[in-house]
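Consider this today:
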Amino acid sequence: MSEEINNANPIPSAAPESFAAVNPIFIEAQAVEAIRTCFDPEIPVNIYELGLIYLIQVSVQGDVQIQMTLTSPSCPSAGTIPPEVEHKVRNVPGVKSVRVDLVWDPPWSPNNMSEAAKLQLGFA
């Protein structure tokens, strides 16, 4: 009987776009998932787990501001990673605009990485 109830009222895997358009928390969560698909080509860990994302702010209008850094100011991917982040977040339902600011303060360090990234890279 509980199987019939579950099948009759399935839980949607994603919120409808109209919900996302008025829900900054949903947009932020989806932006994080999009950012998790961005990788530094030299490091086999996504940039979110590397701790390169310092801030994600979403307005109720769907405007997203991201502050991020790179592992070093001389990172050869400096010209490609921020535009990739912008492109992927722009495709999140409900996002109207994206602004990615590259910041260097505070400087990135391995301490910024998640525990999972540290384990994967042998820092833990």
Remarks:
- Strands lie at 53-58, 63-68, 97-102.
